[in-house]
Each structure stands twice: as structure tokens, then as C-alpha cells.
Specification:
Helices cover 39% and strands 16% of the residues. The protein is an alpha/beta fold. The strands form 3 sheets. The protein has a 6-stranded parallel beta sheet with strand order 1-11-8-7-5-6. Helix 2 links the parallel strand 2 (34-40) and strand 3 (63-69). Helix 1 (7-27) runs parallel beside helix 10 and helix 6 crosses helix 10 (271-289).
Length: 294
Amino acid sequence: MAEILDGLKVSKEIKAEIKTEVEKILEGKRRAPHLVAILVGNNGASKAYVNSKVKDCEEVGFRSTLLKFPSTVSESELLEKIDDLNKSKSVDGFIVQLPLPDQIDQEKIIKAIDPRKDVDGFHPENFGKMALEMDTFLPATPFGILTLLERYNIETKGKDCVIIGRSKIVGRPMSILMGRKDFPGNSTVTLTHSYTKDIEEYTKKADIVITALGDPHFLKGSMIKDGSVIVDVGITRVEDDSPKGYYLAGDVDFDSCSAKASWITPVPGGVGPMTRAMLMKNTLIAYKTSVYND
């Protein structure tokens, strides 16, 4: 039976460490780190996620600002606000919650963010630095997975790692990071996706499987080998007859996979809390390296 990679527990430890650093900053009569979140429209999941980030800021002692725009906001208006935030000496990092409405070019918005304040790690400059193994902001979810593997001392060197999903936010950066010359890293990485024939052929040989599909219960116990490490990034609302009307499901069929794996992340309580914690970590890094904190 697999042991649990407890993202909720580790994320609390990380936020406690950040809070201690912030307390020292405040004792030195310096301002608190400041994170700004931009929310466009009324998407329920986006609103819940942004609100959780605001609560995280309060928990660690950051200053936070939530800027809300209607779904009808123009691209030029949003770019103007981003320019203001780039220039603000009181803002260390900011995020634009995705997805954005159709009238807005998402890539143009991401490119407009000052890379030094891009705490989501999505800017091409930061992505390029990551690929070149240079110091930079890592995307929060991959950063969270790496940290979880590190804290549990999961051996990755020389291991076969299969990534399922090639999104710019998780799959693609994860494939780069697991192959880097560092710990966690030094794995032999296979990136699989919707055009991969017989994914099971790859997952059955993998020492580590990281899945980010958004396809509930996709990975079954019959698709993995004994003793493998399973990291489940997926989270989907599945309708049921419960009072809430749904339950949260990962990409992994937890019962069958946990019977064979050595380590596994739960959903919820695995990768999700780590993503939020690493956004706080990136904001603290941005604060420490800010040209305005002299």
C-alpha cells in the first residue's frame, strides 16, 4: 500500500517558514511583500482560486490586492493596468488569472508582465531561463511537485519518469525540470500526450508517473508497475448524488494505483496546496530580489 505525499502538510510547513521570514522583515521596519491578483469575469473556479490566494497572503503576512474586471474589459485596458503594476514600486509580484475572455490575447498579456514580477513563471523569458537551468521563477505547480518530491526525499536520479499531458503550465515545464541536472531531476523523461499510442506501454515501465490530463480516474493500477511513484495533478468536478452534487476527482484511480505504488498524491490535498504555497514562495523571492528594496 502506497504512502501519501501529503501536499497539505508540506504546504503548511512552507507557509510557516515564509511567515517567519516575513516577521523578520517587519521587525526590520521594512514593508511586507505585496502580491496583486487580476481577475477578469465571474468564472466560479477562478474566483475561488484567487480568493484562496488572498487568504494565503493573509496567512503568511503578505499584503495582497485583488483587482476585478468585468468580462467585457478591453485588451488595451488590461494592458494599461499591467503597465501600472510593472512600474509600481510597492508591488513585488502579480498574477493574471487564466483563462481570459476571447477578446483578449492571452499570450500578449503574459508577455506584457515584467519578468521580475512574473510570480506565475509564465513569461517566455522565465520559461527560457528555466529550460537553460538558470535562476528564475518556476511555474507554481511544477515548483510545488519538485518541492514535494524533495521534502519526501524521493529518488529521481536515473529513474524513468513519464509525464502525461504537455500543457505549457504543467506537462511541458515538468518534463524539462525532471530532466535537469539537479535534485529532483536527472531522470530519463518521456512526455506523452493525446497522440501517444498506447500510453500504458510507457507507464508500466515508469518509476515515476506525473499526470496532468483533467481526465478523471484515467490512470489505473493495471497501467503502473509495483513500487512506482504517482503524482496526480488533475482535478475535476464529477457530478454525484451527494449534498454538494459533485466530488473532486484526480486523473488517477486512487484505490487501484495506491495498492501498487510506493508513494502517491491524493486529490484533493496533494499537488493543489503545493501550487498555492509556491506562489507565496515566488512572491517572497521577487520581494528579496526587487530593485526597489534597497
